[in-house]
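Budget justification aside, the reviewers requested a transparent look at the raw inputs and outputs of the sequence design task funded under Objective 1. We therefore reproduce one unedited record. The lines immediately below are the C-alpha cells for a 66-residue chain.
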C-alpha cells in the first residue's frame, strides 16, 4: 500500500505573489512499485490485447505505403 511523506518546500523565489514565495510543508503520495507486482490477466483480456496488437501492426503496415 502506498503512503504519504511529509516534505518541506524552502522557497528561494523573489518574484511572483506572496503565496508563490511562501515556504511550507507538503505531503506527496508515494505509490507502491509496480516492478515487483504480479499481474494476472484474464484469458479474454489477453485475447483482446492480441487483437489490438494485430490491428496496430496492420495499421503500421498500411500507413507505410500511404
Amino acid at each position: 500500500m502506498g503512503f504519504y511523506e511529509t516534505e518541506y518546500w524552502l522557497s528561494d523565489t523573489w518574484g511572483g505573489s506572496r503565496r508563490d514565495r511562501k515556504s511550507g510543508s507538503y505531503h506527496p503520495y508515494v505509490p507502491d512499485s509496480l516492478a515487483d507486482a504480479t499481474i494476472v490477466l484474464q484469458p479474454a483480456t489477453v485475447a483482446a490485447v492480441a487483437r489490438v496488437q494485430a490491428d496496430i501492426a496492420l495499421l503500421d503496415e498500411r500507413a507505410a505505403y500511404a
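The first helix runs from residue 18 to 21. The chain has a mean pLDDT of 89. Computational costs for records of this kind are itemized in the attached budget.
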